[in-house]
Amino acid sequence: MSSTTRHRPPRAGSIAARLGQSRVASRLEGEVRVTAADLVDCVAEAKLKVAAVRYKVEGEVRTKAEKLRSRVSEAKSKLGDEARFIKSWIDDPLRTGSVTPSSPALARRMASYVDPEQPGPVIEIGPGTGPVTEALIERGIDEGRLILVEYSPEFCALLRERFPRATVVQGDAYALSTTLAGHLTEKAIALVSSLPLFNRPPPARSALAKEAFPLLVEGAPFIQFTYSVISPIPRKGSGLKAFVSDWVLRNIPPARVWVYREAN
Ligand SMILES: C[S@@+](CC[C@H](N)C(=O)[O-])C[C@H]1O[C@@H](n2cnc3c(N)ncnc32)[C@H](O)[C@@H]1O
């Protein structure tokens, strides 16, 4: 190639030079535009990430606060129940029979002898502030199936508030058929009792069982807890078969659960 045909850079200010500059400028402009778009994307992505983290943290804080709130209100309501029980015991120690409500462990043990799959109502006598009622519901017995017989009007008001779909009957469980007249439309599948039976003489306890079983379906359990070492329902001549649980130690005082059934 001769020196005359060799490629030479365009002269400054020439059309070719201006053309070259504008190409470089437009390439640079393009690159700047792409970089700017990338930056916008990065900022948007970062904003999304920040929002997600904030949402997660806020959610966790909210859940923790809710848990704390519910634990505080649970503790408050437990303290309230203890206070109600003590007041009820001071007013009428023989009827209340205990200075403190049953523990969840004892309540669960009582409920464990009720079959939630069997349809029909469940009678609870002496529900007090409702720990056993709660355990029955936890076990899977719908609140609407529960018939609660409680002597104390204050406890009845509390039970109506806590278990609005249950039938709360204020009355004497020792006159069970009269008390339940009009409330029990079919035979019950179980009777769960927390009555302080030992505050009554043996004939009254036997009479309670005698009155209760005709209200239950065949083979249904009469469940009763006691702090005593002997059977709260006198066994001799009762025509009942009985099972007794081991001691539930997580209760003050420790208690056992008796389950009676008609022997046939
Ligand atoms: C030992 S407390 C048990 C309360 C509750 N079920 C618990 O386990 O914490 C006995 C309950 O039976 C009630 N009660 C006592 N005699 C009664 C009766 N004749 N009829 C109905 N309820 C009675 C008392 O008012 C009290 O609420």
Structure description:
The model has no long low-confidence stretch (mean pLDDT 92). Strand 2, helix 5 (153-162) and strand 3 (167-170) form a beta-alpha-beta unit. The chain folds into 2 domains: 16-91; 101-262, Vaccinia Virus protein VP39 (Rossmann fold), CATH 3.40.50.150. It is α/β, with parallel strands linked by helices. Helices cover 47% and strands 13% of the residues. The protein is rod-shaped, with a radius of gyration of 38 Å. Helix 3 packs across helix 4 (131-139). Strands 3-2-1-4-5-7-6 form a 7-stranded mixed sheet, with helices on one face. The structure holds S-adenosylmethionine. S-adenosylmethionine (SAM) binds next to helix 2, helix 4 and strand 2.
Helix and strand arrangement:
Layout: H1 15-91, H2 93-96, H3 104-111, E1 122-125, H4 131-139, E2 146-150, H5 153-162, E3 167-170, H6 176-180, E4 190-193, H7 202-212, E5 222-226, E6 240-244, E7 256-262
Parallel strand pairs: 1-2, 1-4, 2-3, 4-5
Antiparallel strand pairs: 5-7, 6-7
Helix pairs in contact: 3-4
S-adenosylmethionine binds next to helix 2, helix 4 and strand 2.
Q: In order across it, which strands form the biggest sheet? A: 3-2-1-4-5-7-6
Strand tally is 7
Percent helix range = 40-55%
Estimate the mean pLDDT confidence: 92
% residues in beta strands? 5-15%
- Kindly provide the name of the CATH class of the largest domain: Alpha Beta
Query: Count of helices?
Result: 7
Give the name of the CATH superfamily of the largest domain. Answer: Vaccinia Virus protein VP39
CATH T-level topology of the largest domain: Rossmann fold
Bound molecules: S-adenosylmethionine
Question: What is the multimeric organization of the chains shown?
Answer: single chain
